[in-house]
Write a structure and sequence with these properties.
Two copies of one chain form a homodimer. Chain A is of the alpha/beta class. Chain A contains eight helices and ten strands. Chain A is elongated, with a radius of gyration of 20 Å. The model of chain A is unreliable at about 245-253 (pLDDT under 50).
Chain lengths: ~250, ~250
């Protein structure tokens, strides 16, 4: 009997292949099978020259590969003794379905390795030139998905009560209502920003306040995938925008 | 007059040099000056063969390089036309003093580039084999520092009210009291874990509950630097620990 292969749960980062870790790049080099999520930069396949590459995207709301099928696919190839690399956008251990995939692989007794990466909210902050947790403004940051399993909303009031920076994933389809909910608990002048395709060649960003950001983002034509950032720490980005106009070299490296 | 150089604010990740991004590794290759924080793996200097390497650590509570001096040092070298790489542990835009350093560099009109990385809490989750946000358990994760500027405590009750996973940085010196505070708002049976030196060769981890984790960590001799994780999503790690005993191949890659 052939020895069992293994599955590597790999974080692809926000898009730019340069934001992969050295460990991730090496794992791809020796992959036999690569399973790619929708939002992952397809050029990542060039780093896995030996691999069979299979797209298994699951776009919110669209018809797509069922989760159970993806899990069976990983197990089938691993059982053949192959090295399966499951590529997830951003950081694999934040949102997505890593928890369920890990549980399924464990139950099937298939060895798993996890390789971390850069999550989109950090790339968004880098694009804006701000720390997510400037200590003049807050004690931390909350990463929350606006896309809940039961189609309900997160408890925006409880999140606002922490006075922390909010990094909202998958919120663009309801940006207007979520900003309105937050404005009931926070000042409507609270700085906010939207960064689409953060950390990729197509990155676009706008800044404003809780009162204005939904309109500003809509007017600029920004949609999914994007990160919505809210909090006083994000106010530093406004200064940056003003500064950049005079100082185009900034972040030109 | 020589052209102004630039500063790269570089995220070194949690320790293992393999967890640097490709972009970070390349920036180091052509650095002229490297300013290293305390908790950064000193072997990173081997990736910057041309650079003058200066240690500018600022351990909490210890005598160390004042922040203002670090900022002046960056500016002085950049003004000489050099490429200064400021290396920060974990992700540069989470805690640390990136916000202040960015503001100082902007005021001095020095071009800045930011390179993201892997924050320790993600490495801790990888070590435990869990998602930080398993959707059976929560809608997000909070990254909070227990080490506040004015020596007060974060509002643990407000954080607990969000029902999210908590990733607590710099909390080991007060783990007992902070777990007690959290246990006033959460069940004392809430799963918890401590991971010391997450994502490095010296990584050590223990799991327990809010009621037990402080004693378990102390008995195992775990101290700073460590991440404390609290929340139902972390309960998946307990299953993993039980499973690993029978299945040592797991994450052996």
């Amino acid at each position: 009997m052939k020895p069992t292969g293994k599955v590597t749960l790999l974080s692809a980062g926000p898009g730019d292949l340069d934001l992969l870790t050295l460990k991730a790049a090496r794992a791809l080099t020796c992959a036999d099978v690569v399973l790619l999520d929708d939002l992952v930069n397809p050029e990542i396949a060039s780093l896995a020259p030996q691999a069979r590459v299979i797209k298994v995207g699951k776009r919110g709301g669209c018809r797509s590969t069922p989760q159970a099928f993806i899990e069976r696919l990983m197990q089938r190839y691993a059982r053949k003794g192959l090295h399966v690399v499951r590529v997830k956008g951003g950081e694999a251990l934040l949102f997505g379905r890593a928890g369920e995939e890990l549980a399924a692989l464990r139950q099937a007794q298939i060895p798993v390795e996890i390789i971390n990466g850069v999550s989109s909210a950090f790339a968004a902050a880098a694009g804006l030139g701000v720390s997510l947790t400037h200590r003049d403004h807050c004690q931390g940051v909350i990463f929350v998905t606006a896309h809940l399993r039961d189609h309900s909303e997160p408890d925006w009031r409880a999140l606002a009560a922490t006075r922390m920076t909010l990094a909202i994933y998958m919120g663009m389809s309801r940006i207007e209502t979520l900003c309105a909910s937050l404005a009931q608990a926070l000042s409507s002048e609270t700085p906010a920003a939207v960064v689409q395709w953060a950390g990729s060649a197509n990155e676009r960003r706008v800044t404003g306040t809780l009162a204005t950001i939904a309109a500003v983002a809509t007017e600029a034509g920004l949609g999914s995938p994007a990160i919505i950032l809210v909090g006083d720490a994000i106010g530093e980005a406004v200064t940056l925008a003003a500064f950049e106009a005079e100082m185009p070299l900034l972040r030109s490296a």
